Amino acid sequence: MIEALKSDEIVNKCGGRFKLTALIQRRMAELMEGARPLVERQGRSDLELVIEEIVQDKITYVLPSQAENESDSD
Prior knowledge:
This protein has 74 residues and is mainly alpha-helical. It has one domain: Eukaryotic RPB6 RNA polymerase subunit (Alpha-Beta Complex), CATH 3.90.940. It is 58% helix and 0% strand. It has helices spanning 8-14, 17-32, 46-55, 64-73. The longest helix has 16 residues, at 17-32. The chain is globular.
């Protein structure tokens, strides 16, 4: 599963390596604080879960300014 990080597909899905890293870090923190995984654990580490969530489009990176704009329109 970690091999997926070597693929440009996952990097492009997030909009770049920095955004990918930020997304992984934020989701890892959520999981450590008790958030439920969005995919089956099946004996995988938290990092492997986060990568699988990204690959399956379960989570995406949204810039803070974009998130504020979306909440303002609701």
